Amino acid sequence: MLGAALVLGWMSVRVAVQDSVRDADPQLAAQFWPADGASLAALARQRVAAASGDIDDTTRALYRSALVRDPLLADPLALAGVDAAVKGDLRRAERLMMAARDRDPRAPLARFWLLDHFVRTGHYAAALDEVGPAIHLRPEAITAIMTVLTAIAATPDGQKALTVELATRPFWRTAFFQTAANTTSPDVLLALLAPSSSAANSAATGDEQRAVFVAMVNAGDGARAYRAWQQLLPTNYRERAHGIYDGNFGRWPGAKPFNWILAQDEIGSTRMVTAGDLPQATALNVRYFGSTTGVLAEQYVYARSGTYQLRLVARRRTNGATGGRLNMEVRCANGAVIATLPLDPLNTQLRALSTPVTVAPGCEMLRVRLVGTPGEMFSEIEAQVTGVELVPSG
Questions:
Q1: Is there a contact between 53 and 19 (Cβ–Cβ < 8 Å)?
Q2: In which element (H, E) is residue 173 found?
Q3: What would the pLDDT profile of 175-199 be if each residue is shown by its tens digit?
Q4: What is the model's pLDDT at position 258?
Q5: Which of 27, 130, 295, 306 is deepest in the core (most CB within 10 A)?
Q6: Which of 385, 374, 272, 260 lies closest to 328 in space, CA to CA?
Q7: What percent of the chain is modeled with pLDDT above 70?
Q8: What is residue 326's three-state secondary structure?
Q9: What beta strand segments (E) does the chain contain?
Q10: What stretch of H or E contains 62?
Q11: Torsions phi, psi of 239, nearest 5?
Q12: How many H helices and E strands in the chain?
């Protein structure tokens, strides 16, 4: 009994020590007799990493011994898969990697090898099955993985597989669109975005649409982006999507940037509020802190070339002197300011303001922005704005 207790005690100590040093020093862990399979596999992994993926006879002996000691381990099978791939036997490598993955779904080597392998061989649906688990295992790899997916999107088969996968709304969907918006053609982006139309009110879908539409505007395809955005609106709001959208700040559905982008930062804060004493019943409540020039609210607007009037009504919500100013400006989406409407002077009574706007050919995509600018005296401004519209003149 004493002998058995001593053996059991030694085994417990050995396992504890091996577990504690295996990842940090697999060589040391493997020296405990008898070396366990996990320690031998860890040492084999270390040798493969040091050899940049090459496997020599010593490494083969290690992973084979690891598998003999613990037949249920995943790592030795994955290393055997790497060995088969180096020798050019990709079918055997794939079978071994899939077996390793099935034994341990959290085996990074198997997951990432299979992801890369399925992409290279054009098995895109199988590759996409590996994306979520791979990101969970290595969150820092998400940018690289999304870049790979944008390359898949450029192929017909890859686009088809991505359309199916994105329609299931995987957690990495928004990250994909934000990455793809920088490199992928508008036609592909719109095709991939289309399945989100049934969930157009979700915050994630709004972020995806915004990334796609801003990329299209920057690429000079703003008119098509605007039409696509209109089609993704709920049916009863599509007829209202002309000129400035939700000019009374009534919280209408629809993705940015063709809906209002509101500031909540060191410049100031803006929020849509109910205002029962106003004819419009709703308004944008604006607090500009007065220290730095900045955009408090913004919306992209499509308008054909011609002459317009920019109109709004506003009132102050505070008494006393103020040092800064609020202006509603219109600029070309990627160009200069073409009109400025100062919200000045304002008092606590609602005041109507307007200014002419000329939209020249080539400047049909506009940015309507509420801007705060500091004055000589530092002070905060609070106001309410509503009834914003851009209407043709005459």
A1: no
A2: helix 173-180
A3: 999 999 888 888 888 888 876 545 4
A4: 97
A5: 130
A6: 385
A7: 85
A8: strand
A9: 261-262, 268-274, 282-288, 294-302, 306-316, 325-332, 337-342, 351-359, 365-373, 381-392
A10: helix 57-69
A11: -70, -20
A12: 15, 10
